[in-house]
Structure formats: structure tokens, C-alpha cells
Amino acid sequence: MAMPLNEKSDIPQTHGSGTQALVLGAGIAGLFTARILAEYYDQVCVVERDTLPEEPENRPGTPPSD
């Protein structure tokens, strides 16, 4: 269920609150989510089943855009 735009979330609004966040998947959505959560949490851990490449390349299970 989506949260109405006028409702406050449970995300802490201050840095240094001693909290941690976990993101499952390092696809574009997971990495973007981790980036945003890093503004609110002291530590963000991203868990990915595949090894991330050193250089940009197509990833298994992620179709390239046309």
C-alpha cells in the first residue's frame, strides 16, 4: 500500500541515530534506494547474489535497454 504524500514516514529525520538499513539487490533500484537511505541511516548494507563487475557491463538477469 502506498503512503499518501502528506503523511510522514517512519524514516529517522536526523543523521547519527545509530541505525542500520539493509537493501536486497544491487540493481538500479537497489543502488538508488541505498543512496537515498544513506542520508538517513549511519550504515547501509547492500546484499547482491551476483559479483558486481569492476567496469560497466550488462548483468545476468537484467535485460539491456534498446
UniProtKB/TrEMBL annotation:
This is FAD dependent oxidoreductase domain-containing protein. It comes from Ktedonobacter robiniae.
